[in-house]
Design a protein that fits this description.
This protein has 332 residues and is an alpha+beta fold. The protein has 3 domains: 30 residues, no CATH class; 193 residues, 3-Layer(aba) Sandwich (Chemotaxis protein chec), CATH 3.40.1550; 64 residues, SpoA-like (Surface presentation of antigens (SPOA)), CATH 2.30.330. It has 11 helices and 10 strands. The strands form 2 sheets. It has a 6-stranded antiparallel beta sheet with strand order 1-5-6-3-2-4. A 4-stranded antiparallel beta sheet has the order 7-8-9-10, with no helix packed on it. A hairpin with a 2-residue loop joins strand 8 and strand 9. The longest helix has 26 residues. It comes from Niallia taxi. InterPro entries: CheC-like_sf, Flag_FliM, FliN-like_C, SpoA-like_sf. This is Flagellar motor switch protein FliM. It is a peripheral membrane protein. Keywords: Bacterial flagellum, Cell membrane, Cell projection, Chemotaxis, Cilium, Flagellar rotation, Flagellum, Membrane.
Length: 332
């Protein structure tokens, strides 16, 4: 008996067989006690749990949203990118599943070991390049005949796009993505051994009327140092990091050493442009404030204190009389 749930018809048929004698209950018990043998394919070793795959899916869903915003701005058209699947398969199987000629971007992700592969379907890549060159986003698949200029445009575009993976992974690890290789033939690219387990995240991409897949291939060696952080328990943690005393003290010292401007405002006056142009040496401008009223002292551009003018050692000075409360800056 397997652990599958039986339908009502299957239950009725089983009871009918037991009651008619076609099936012996003792034989069923004996069969249950026997050891079950399940075939295991070592070439398809599952090295990630379902929980870890779900965490990687969440990370790349965020990555897909960031890419949607980036490409929509760069291409000046509507772009839709979403995660369709996340699977762990042998590297050789992934290479066989992609087109014989496609766009392959290989990235170093310091400080993690290994490299990550970003495979872009040629239809998508050419649609993007056509939009960036002022076209309507028409896709012409001639990836085997890429010119040097086309290769440079594509590699620059995807290098900037992949930089958003840093933001998607920032809660787990700080990485510095760097494009290390640009290739069009998968047979010339050997990142890991053929039987090495890789996680492949497939992103369905639509640009105007053109659609295709962007595949992110991540070898196990890259994820190995951060596997403990891919568990659901890690994501559910809500511990607040205590502030580091040294950092707080350094910030306080820097703030105390900051230089700000302090201005004592004698008053204001409104004059016409014509009067302003007619001003000459010796002219007097009447302020809207009498000499017996306190001055407004501003720190930066913000009124903070009230004071009165005076002299200290034959130098003009201002004595602070009090703090200016908010809402009373205009003499309320």
């Amino acid at each position: 008996m397997s652990g599958d749930i039986l339908s009502q018809n299957e239950i009725d048929a089983l009871l009918s067989a037991l009651s008619s004698g076609e099936m012996d209950a003792d034989e069923l018990k004996k069969e249950q006690q026997e050891k079950k043998v399940k075939a295991y394919d070592f070439r398809r070793a599952l090295r990630f749990s379902k929980d870890q795959i779900r965490s990687l899916t969440r990370i790349h869903e965020n990555f897909a949203r960031l890419l949607t915003t980036y490409f929509s701005a760069q291409l000046r058209t509507l772009v839709q990118i979403s995660v369709t699947s996340a699977d762990q398969i042998p590297y050789e199987e992934f290479i066989r599943s992609i087109p014989k000629m496609t766009i392959l971007n290989v990235f170093e992700v310091t400080p993690l070991d290994g490299r990550i592969l970003m495979e872009v379907n040629p239809n998508i890549a050419y649609a993007m390049m056509d939009r960036m060159m002022g076209g309507k986003g028409t896709s012409v698949n001639k990836v085997e005949n890429l010119t040097e200029i086309e290769s440079k445009i594509m590699s620059n575009t995807f290098e900037q796009a992949f930089d958003y993976l840093r933001e998607a992974l920032e809660d787990i690890v700080e990485i510095e993505p760097t494009l290390s290789e640009f290739e069009v033939n998968p047979q010339f690219l050997q990142m890991v051994s053929p039987n090495e387990t890789v996680v492949v995240i497939s992103l369905n991409t639509t640009i105007g009327d053109t659609s295709g897949m962007i595949n992110i291939c991540i070898p196990h060696v890259v994820l190995e140092p951060i596997i403990p952080k891919l568990s659901g328990h890690y994501w559910m943690q809500t511990e607040k990091k205590a502030p580091v005393p040294e950092v707080a003290e350094a910030l306080q010292n820097n703030i105390q050493k900051s230089i700000v401007s302090v201005v004592a405002e004698l008053g204001t006056s409104d004059i016409s442009i014509q009067d302003f142009l007619m001003l000459d040496i010796g002219d007097v401008i009447e302020m809207n404030q009498t000499i017996d009223q306190p001055l407004t002292i501003k720190v930066g551009d913000i009124p903070k204190f009230i004071g009165q003018p005076g002299k200290v050692n034959k130098k003009v000075a201002v004595q602070v009389l009090g703090t200016l409360e908010r809402g009373k800056e205009d003499g309320e």
